[in-house]
Amino acid sequence: MSKVPYGPTYDEMYQPHRLDEKTAKLAKDAKQNELDPYNLFNITWRKDDGSINKVVLPKALTGIEANIIVMLGKDFPSGSHKVGPAYATLIEGVVDGDIIPGYHNILGPSTGNFGIGVAYISNLMKLDSTIIMPDNMSKERYDRIKGYGAKLDLTPGTESDVILTLEKTHELAKAEKNVALAQFELMPNYRFHRHVTGQSAIEAAKEIGNGRIAAFISAPGSAGTLAAGDHIKKIYPEVKITALEPYECSTLMDGGRGQHRIEGIGDKMCTLIHNVLNTDFIALISDEDAVRGLKILRDGHDVLSEHGVDKKTMQAMREFFGVSGVCNILGAIKMAKHLQLGPDDNILTMATDGFDRYDSVLKNLEERTLEIENFVLRRWHKDIFLNLEPSGIKDTRTALEKTRLFQQKEDDWLKFGYQKAYLDKMKNPQFWDDEYEKVHTYNQKIETKRGQKL
Question: pTM of the full predicted structure?
Answer without folding.
Answer: 0.94
